[in-house]
Design a protein that fits this description.
The protein has 506 residues and is α/β, with parallel strands linked by helices. The chain has 18 helices and 19 strands. The radius of gyration is 26 Å and the shape is elongated. The two termini are 16 Å apart.
């Protein structure tokens, strides 16, 4: 697990490290410059260490600019050709910046208020960093647009200027980096779109922030890496299928059969002991062929659908409801019964969420743990918030919805967020090849399988989203992003699990 900071959190960590731990700010600045220098050299001088680079470093009068000036000095001292453009558009400059500017001038670095050439090997952005709170305009916008038009290797210090460090939104315009070297913790704005698209390769480097102060600030958001696969529930030698849970999958309608198979097989691949599919009678033969391991109970009308819902509550350890069930009377009856009567964990997906959005009080009546897995459009229907507004603030929307209804929300997007209303997991696995029909049904099955095999609702949702993305990445390796389909993601689940077992993480 690693923390992901927003603007305010990172600034507070910086302040506490300097003011309460006594680490001089100028020392942090020097360390920051050294790390950026190391990253530049490792990419551009790894073969020819004697190569002289022609470098442009563009700065403004804050501490990010001070980082840039310190870097310019280090580049100059290792023999590179360095030009510093100091925009000089703000009236108040930081003491650290003034200190670094004086040194740069004394050692002979050329400092001007404009970009004097168009032929550079390296272009460095040290203008705003994480502190930017308003749209980029005027001379700053002109300068950034000029930088974007230059050739060379583009490097952003901490955060590309113009990217909101908290949301990833572009504030008027932004520097397009090939690499961003960020300090201490990764930033939300470098993970969320569209900020991550223009940040290039993101490298997180330690420059001496006190861990105690990071823990004290305790950033709200975090993400997983492969070490976190250790949370996968283990298996016992003295076990049977009942040990690993009974999952009810209420999915599929007479016109939609694929959803039930994707969800059920994904749950089995996660280790679920027994899956019982409740579906329309027209899907009976398809289910028998595609998921022969599953038990079946079918309905053909509303009354039979209600019997299925009652049976699911009485029989199962967890219930997944929604994939492909439609919005007819039978589906509505099952959703309302499950949401109001189930005491086991319920995973509500797809059509179940669309039904709930028309009658939101259903969600507030749940008796046991509930996980909802909406995509952006479904969350818009659930909340009444416009899709563009959700995308601009996906983390807060996810967190607020979870808090309001006391549920776990997995809000699906290019960067899926999962929240229990207190903190937020931001997922960084996965790829755009997963934008394909059925991928959401696979995710719902993965999460449900983790619940059945022993994880709590919140942990299952977070780890399920991460594993889903890893499986998608493996599917993309095998099939290519354009060619992969939902079945490929299901098939890749076993590779993820096997890899975790092999690495001793389970």
């Amino acid at each position: 697990m690693f923390y992901v900071a927003d603007r305010t959190e990172m600034q507070e960590i910086d302040r506490l490290t300097i003011e309460e731990k006594g680490v001089p700010g100028i020392l942090l600045m020097e360390r920051a410059a050294i790390t950026v220098l190391e990253e530049i050299n490792s990419r551009l001088k790894s073969i020819n260490a004697d190569r002289k680079l022609k470098c442009l470093v563009v700065v403004e009068g804050g501490n990010n600019g001070g980082d840039g000036l310190a870097l310019a000095r280090l580049l100059y001292q290792q023999g590179d050709i360095v030009h510093v453009c100091y925009i000089n558009g703000i009236s108040r400059v930081s003491d650290s910046f003034s200190y670094q500017l004086e040194i740069a001038k004394k050692i002979g670095i050329q400092v001007t208020d404009h970009i004097i050439d168009s032929d550079y090997d390296v272009v460095v952005d040290g203008i705003f960093g994480v502190g930017l709170k308003r749209d980029v305009a005027g001379i700053w916008r002109e300068t950034i647009e000029t930088m974007n038009g230059l050739g060379g290797f583009k490097v952003a210090i901490d955060t590309p200027s113009g990217v909101d460090a908290s949301t990833g939104q572009i504030m008027g315009c932004a520097f397009r980096a090939g690499m961003t070297v960020t300090f201490g913790l990764n930033k939300r704005g470098l993970i969320f779109y569209p900020g991550c698209e223009i940040s290039g390769e993101v490298v997180v480097r330690d420059i001496g922030f006190a861990q105690a102060e990071v823990d004290r600030v305790h950033p709200v958001a975090y993400s997983y890496n492969r070490d976190d696969l250790c949370m996968l529930p283990g298996r016992s030698d003295s076990s049977n299928k009942g040990t690993y849970g009974k999952l009810a999958v209420i999915a599929g309608s007479r016109d939609m059969s694929g959803a039930m198979t994707f969800a059920a097989e994904a749950a089995y691949r996660m280790g679920t002991g027994l899956v019982k599919i409740y579906t329309h009678i027209d899907n009976k033969e398809i289910a028998g062929v595609r998921i022969p391991e599953a038990v079946l109970m079918c309905y053909s009308n509303k009354d039979e659908a209600e019997q299925c819902a009652r049976d699911a509550v009485e029989w199962s350890d967890a219930i997944l409801i929604g994939p492909g069930i439609g919005k007819g009377d039978a589906a509505r009856s099952m959703v309302e019964y499950i949401m109001c009567e189930a005491v086991q964990t319920v995973i509500a997906d797809a059509d179940a969420l669309n039904i709930i959005s028309e009658k939101p009080d259903i969600l507030g009546r749940h008796r046991g743990p509930v996980i909802v897995t909406p995509h952006i459009g479904e969350m818009s229907r659930l909340t009444g918030v416009a899709i563009p507004d959700i995308k601009k603030n996906i983390l807060e929307v996810c967190k607020d919805f979870s808090m309001e209804y006391n549920v776990v929300s997995a809000l699906k997007d290019a960067r899926t967020c999962v929240s229990d209303g207190r903190d937020v997991y931001i997922n960084t696995s996965g790829n755009n090849g997963m934008s394909t029909a059925g991928a959401g049904d696979v995710l719902a099955g993965i999460i449900a399988g983790l619940v059945c095999t022993g994880l709590g609702a919140y942990e299952a949702a977070k780890l399920g989203v991460y594993i889903h993305g890893l499986a998608g990445d493996m599917a993309a390796e095998h099939r290519g992003r354009n060619a992969m389909i939902a079945r490929d993601i299901v098939s890749a689940i076993s590779e993820v699990i096997k890899g975790a077992e092999h690495d001793g993480q389970q």
